[in-house]
């Protein structure tokens, strides 16, 4: 599944093309792409056609395109919100370009500087979705997410925590949550209501860099260890962003259909049996829910003793 770097690469590519663009028309080819939308395909097309897109924004793994108010003045009250699911793509194409393989929705635009173009939502596995959703105030009064300065966020995204690259992300709040969690630290990192944007790949990479075993109970981590982990999460995400994200198959691409190359920089994920870049011992792979964890059993050791739950801490 695309994680923060892959989704941010898409957002950054969309932003200059959609900001200020008028929606000329919308074509829904597969209504399964609207599972998060409250109406049908006709409703989606009608509500979006003729509107002006203000920007491209992101929180965690969610994207949204805020819409200029129909009444003219005031702040944006709704947006096109999208989630890429397992294999979703947002592609920029020339007007009238041939349909993409697995194309589900096409949005035709007229941009004041770039002229006409199309945003194509393609999705092989159909787990991704688009919807028109209301914007609601953020709980902390800070901007909704990357690329959106207003203190609002789509209602469908309001439960998603801020990501570690968000200026409004609170390290202290996360430290407090971790002190009360008996769950394995990797499970907590993947909880999008606590820390957003981190999936299996970047969790494994960050834990390897911080020398923390993925099954370590979150509550036993010291303040220093949590600070080190959050720092490594940021470093890993920043590096992946600089390299265009991680692409293991043709689904993870930017708006021009190009793949990222962070896979060449991975230290743990997907390297089962290969030598750990730090100590030379083999990377191991163990089952983790419906996925796998990759780590170095030598560098990332479980604490020798794990105290019992600390009630009220």
Which sequence of strands runs across the widest sheet?
2-3-4-8-9
| Separation, N- and C-terminal Cα atoms | 34 Å
Class computed from helices, strands and strand pairing? alpha+beta
**Total number of strands:** 11
Residue stretches low in confidence (pLDDT < 50, at least 5 long) are none
Nearest-integer average pLDDT: 90
* Largest sheet geometry: 5 strands, antiparallel
User: Which percent bin holds the helix content?
Assistant: 10-25%
CATH architecture label of the largest domain:
Alpha-Beta Barrel
Helices, by number, come to 6
CATH fold field value of the largest domain: N-terminal domain of MutM-like DNA repair proteins
| Beta fraction | 15-25%
Overall 3D shape: elongated
At the fourth level of CATH, the homologous superfamily of the largest domain is MutM-like, N-terminal
User: What series of H and E elements makes up the topology?
Assistant: HEHEEEEEEEEHHHHEE
Q: Given this structure, which CATH class of the largest domain is correct? A: Alpha Beta
Q: Cα-atom Rg, whole angstroms?
A: 21 Å
